[in-house]
Amino acid sequence: EDNVILTAALESSGNEELKDDWDVNVVPDAVSRPSRYSTSDQQSSTIFFTASVTQWYQKVRDKHILNQVTKRLDQLSGGNRSYCLSKRLKGSSVEVFETILLNGCRIIWTQSSGNILVWYICHHKHIDRCVRLVNDAFRRSYEI
Q1: Minimal CA–CA distance to 31: which of 79, 93, 100, 86?
Q2: Which of 35, 37, 38, 143 could form a disulfide with 75 if both were Cys (CB 3.0 to 4.6 A apart)?
Q3: What is the pLDDT of residues 43-59, one digit of tens each?
Q4: Do the beta carbons of residue 100 and residue 69 sit within 8 Å?
């Protein structure tokens, strides 16, 4: 059941407009499948992945980290916004968040209209670079 997000992330979603703009893959069942971590007053979110995250999924071989990332994404899609799931990062002109993983890795993501866009999964020492890349992408797209 936890691998549904991972499997769906590697498949095409059919949402061509968004994929063309962001080069993302959609997790189509993040909304239709109730999260184990959501409550009735929380709204579910659709999770989108950039190409960088899809490549990371294809390269990583550690089942423990894959399960942990899947669990965290399931929690985020269920509306859970605890501190370790949604720490706001400083030094950015847009709201960029990190989700903390056990081995020093982080999930770097933004939220718009209730949807979550996962930009990077990186080690803690690369957070500054990832935030800078997210800012550059927004600057190119929206002229912030």
Answers
A1: 79
A2: 37
A3: 677 888 988 898 888 89
A4: no
